[in-house]
């Protein structure tokens, strides 16, 4: 009995496969806790969804602004890299993609697109990236695409 | 004073600038101190260690303090920790006593901030000295304790545990690091991911994504409307502010600051817990508890001194144990790594200059915060009027810069930012809690090393119980945190069923 207990207690970890030792424990725990969550909350979640108490999107979701954000962000990051590849080592990828991005994003987020706001948006889109580029890239030597 | 000599004039200027930028972030509803620190990180890349930390600490103090402005004027907590400031601040503002309420909050914030900085100064080295003796076994148990505390204080304990485990899982993606005794083999990813994820996801883009980009997506979903705050933004003079209002409030100030510092010390717990606890305590001990919530100074004192008490408190486990006390200090851990410093029990002893300069910067930031807010509150309060369509694009741009420059120009880090931005937005909708996830992510790889090395060295599972009295003490703390969580949830359930 004592031998059996001590063999249960003793542990040897093979170094060549030790990269899996801890992740396997974490995955097993994730699975167990995940199952408990699903089992214990399944009825409640199904009831809430069917009664419309829980929806993925907010009740008054602004789909235009949400979708625009989800599209604009990856396009911005992609363009940053793309332009940076065309004109390398000058921070131009950042500067030349940030100006149109800032302009478009501000335009999308703005609810009253009157003359005054358009001027503010244009100035902000042109000057802020320029200032950041000048400060970070030229003055502080921070890497920019 | 020699103490302050460690800070260069530039560091003083940066701490002051940080406080002011932090106040602006804190004052804008939806922006938090964590976001302020995350967004301004790229500015520190080329600064020296002391200067960079001075800026970040200024942002932290300013960010937490700024939240009081919209809490009083608009009934909207600028940061989660100002939630209880709205209870008495807004009724006072409605009576025309906005300026008085704001100034009471500002003075209380200063007291809480200084109080916690002093506790930090005396307590962190003691804790670090104690933790130096920790072996892998105790270090693992300490992380385990931190994780149980975070999970047990989540809105839903099961989801808290799941979120924490998910964070740990994410931190294990990549190679089993040779420098920490691993075998350098890949795990938990497909072959095509190996060029990008050799050392796993980079901490800061993950954090900036979860706290910065996710917030922007969330706000876009809500429609980025600028509410018509202007009409409500009036600092009409009612009863003027006098320091005599603090007469009889000393015990409230000290108790609330202490609660804030203590809650800050516990890992992963947000500021709202601190201010709610301090407010409730004051209500329990007040001579006129029925008046609290109708616009009385004692409520403001409790709320604001406790949430600024957090700042020093949250830095204690970060600097002495390497465990972040809240989400903002989690971002700070990234800033330390960036400067090539590892926070943990040896940090203070080996970096005395940095340690003193941090405390000096923290104290100075509190003073700047006080001076700026106390004397320029009329101007500061207008910050809430900055339109979102100007602010949000700037934040996204700064997040992108921060992620790209962190490893000196790795585009994958920018995609990490985007992935975790979207993930942060989606995960919170399905009940995953960000705080335990982040703490799990930060501590996961250390937990692995400590756990596996303990077993490799001793060859038995029971070592986690039998190693030392400290191990047993840590198990006691773990048991206590689980017990308290059970009590809190039972009490909450009883309250809900009583109300419902």
Description:
The complex is a heterodimer of chains A (145) and B (500). With 145 residues, chain A is mainly alpha-helical. Chain A has two domains: 2-50; 63-139, no CATH class. Chain A has five helices and no strands. Chain A has helices at residues 2-9, 21-50, 63-86, 92-109, 115-139. Chain A is flat. The termini of chain A are far apart. The model of chain A has no long low-confidence stretch (mean pLDDT 91). By secondary structure, chain B is an all-alpha fold. Chain B contains 23 helices and two strands. Chain B is globular, with a radius of gyration of 22 Å. In chain B, 59% of the residues are buried. Classes of the chains: A mainly alpha (145), B mainly alpha (500). At the A-B interface, α2, α3, α4 and α5 of A face α9, β2, α11, α19 and α20 of B.
Write a short abstract of this structure.
Chain A has 145 residues and is mostly helical. In chain A, 72% of the residues lie in helices and 0% in strands.
Give short descriptive properties of this protein.
heterodimer, A: 145 residues, mainly alpha, 2 domains, B: 500 residues, 23 helices, globular
Tell me the strand order in the biggest sheet of chain B: 1-2
One letter per element, helices H and strands E, the order of chain A comes to HHHHH
Strand segment tally of chain B: 2
Q: Could you estimate the helical fraction of the residues of chain A in percent?
A: over 70%
Q: Over the alpha carbons, how many angstroms does the gyration radius of chain A reach?
A: 27 Å
Domains of chain A, number: 2
Relative strand content of chain B: under 5%
Oligomer: heterodimer
Would you report the number of β strands of chain A?
A: 0
What is the number of helices of chain B?
A: 23
Judged by helices, strands and strand pairing, the structural class of chain B is mainly alpha
Radius of gyration of chain B: 22 Å
Greatest contact pair?
A-B, 66 and 67 residues
Bulk shape of chain A = flat
Distance between the termini of chain B: 59 Å
Mean pLDDT of chain B: 88
Main sheet of chain B, how many strands, which sense, barrel? 2 strands, antiparallel
**Arithmetic mean of pLDDT of chain A:** 91
* Main sheet attributes: strand count, strand direction, barrel closure of chain A: none
- How many domains of chain B? The number is 1
Secondary-structure-derived class of chain A? mainly alpha
